[in-house]
Specification:
8 strands, globular, alpha/beta, Rossmann fold, 14% strand, 8-stranded mixed beta sheet
């Protein structure tokens, strides 16, 4: 796409937000509080090379030949920061996929399945190696074509993983929803204004999760892991998400600091290398991700499609008369594979 001007992706203007969800904050909160479908899923635990584990939750279509695949690809979903496989947007998408006859599997990032993982380390915006290990385990059971959907932090991980995976031959399509793209810009966004409260929410969740994990390790006598957490310093002294990433995320996961972590893991730099048809869904009134965080059009290959709405919040995307617009839009894209 060389020669094109460095302009942001065009907005999709034909749609409108519901009158009762007029702003990005309300759409974001609506998604978090939305009624979720009741799904009967099957959980599988996948052991990792470092002795840790990851849990995934399958939802198989009616009559699915799950042992030997089928005509339709397996859809793999990645949740966002402080989320899990039970997040409303994950359940809504799996419900829609199930109704359309697709098998799906939702990955819980380390420590997000309702049980503490075994190590002090957790997950972060660049944990593509964990995704590769999970996909390897899934593909060892059955050879399937794959569609991968990532939301928020999971979308950032997805784009990075797409450029690294050895399973490119199996990929049919990918979908990135509310991707932060530039981690440093998003972190700066959450230092002031209304976005500050999102940063505080994430900080409290991450800090509490780590403190609870430390307490569990102390009761289990896992002194080596307790020591690693204690070496990070006083967690209650951390005031911003940047503080947490600098003092906790970076040293636990091999980065020199928050800035090094953001620079090496921001998915904006990987978008040009995406090898498969990819849909990017984003909102210009996302309260967490500033518009200038998105890459310009000339940084993306021609097989990347953009659905940039003026409304939608962060992983919200209810439209006038259609609360499941996001799920239907993704399904339409998948059905073209």
């Amino acid at each position: 796409m060389t020669g094109l001007p460095s302009a942001p992706p065009p907005l999709t203007k034909a749609l409108s937000a519901p009158w009762w969800l007029p702003g990005g904050h309300l759409q974001t909160i609506w998604r978090k509080l939305a009624t979720v479908p009741l799904l009967v899923r099957q959980r599988q635990r996948i052991e990792l090379g470092d002795g840790d584990f990851i849990d995934v939750d399958y939802l198989l279509a009616e009559g699915s030949p799950s042992a030997d695949g089928g005509d339709k690809p397996l859809v793999f979903l990645l949740h966002g920061l402080a989320g899990c496989s039970a997040s409303p947007y994950i359940l809504a998408m799996q419900h829609t996929l199930h109704a359309a006859g697709y098998d799906s599997v939702a990955m819980n990032l380390r420590g997000c399945s309702g049980e503490h993982n075994r190590l002090a380390i957790a997950y972060h915006s660049g944990c593509s190696d964990d995704v590769e290990q999970v996909i390897t385990a899934l593909m060892s059971r059955q050879q399937r074509r794959l569609v991968v959907i990532g939301y928020s932090l999971g979308a950032n991980v997805l784009i990075k993983w797409l450029t690294e995976t050895r399973f490119r031959h199996a990929l049919s399509a990918a979908v990135s929803v509310s991707n932060p793209f530039s981690l440093d810009l998003c972190c700066a966004q959450m230092k002031s204004g209304m976005a500050y409260w999102y940063g505080r929410y994430f900080l409290r969740r991450l800090r509490t999760d780590l403190q609870n994990k430390q307490s569990a390790f102390e009761q289990q006598g896992r002194d080596d892991q307790v020591r690693r957490i204690r070496e990070l310093g006083e967690l209650n002294a951390l005031q911003t998400l940047w503080d947490f990433d600098d003092a906790v995320t970076a040293p636990l996961h091999g980065f020199a600091g928050a800035n090094d972590y953001y620079q090496r893991c921001s998915s904006r730099q990987f978008l040009a290398g995406v090898p498969v048809r990819t849909l990017v869904v984003h909102s210009h009134n996302d309260p967490i991700i500033p518009p200038h965080s998105l890459p310009p059009r000339d940084q993306a290959p021609a097989h990347v499609s953009w659905e940039i709405l003026p409304f939608g919040g962060h992983v919200g995307f209810a439209t006038n008369g259609q609360n499941d617009w996001l799920e239907r839009r993704i399904l339409r894209f998948i059905e073209l594979t």
